Amino acid sequence: MTKDQHLEDQQQRFREDNNQLIAFDAAVLIQRGYTEEAALTKACEINENQQEALGDPTGVLATLAEARSPNAPSDQVAQTKAIAARLLGKLDDAE
Question: From first to last of its 95 residues, what are the pLDDT tens digits of the chain?
């Protein structure tokens, strides 16, 4: 495997992992009453803030509400995962 191929594989894995996080956060937001479009937009914003917080040497950005994923309802985990799986398909199709 060439270095370029390895880099491309790592970038693809990063995108897939991010899409899973975005889909799950959006699913939680949908359960809270957001529309699908609004939930995906908000989940993308949360993800961007989390990525920015990773590079913050002070750690302050990670404590902001804008960088925190919403908590899934503990009694609706299966439903949350099902919604996230559907949304993940849409995110993958959008790439």
Answer: 788 888 888 998 999 999 999 999 999 999 999 999 999 999 999 999 999 999 899 989 999 999 999 999 899 999 999 999 999 988 877 66
Query: Range of 61's domain?
Result: 25-94
How far apart CA 65 and CA 26 sit, in angstroms, is: 16
Query: By the 8 A CB rule, do 23 and 80 touch?
Result: no
CB atoms within 10 A of CB 28: 20
Q: How many domains are there within the chain? A: 1
In a domain, 83, yes or no: yes
Residue 46 lies in a domain: yes
Picking from 64, 90, 69, 68, the residue whose alpha carbon sits closest to that of residue 24 is 69
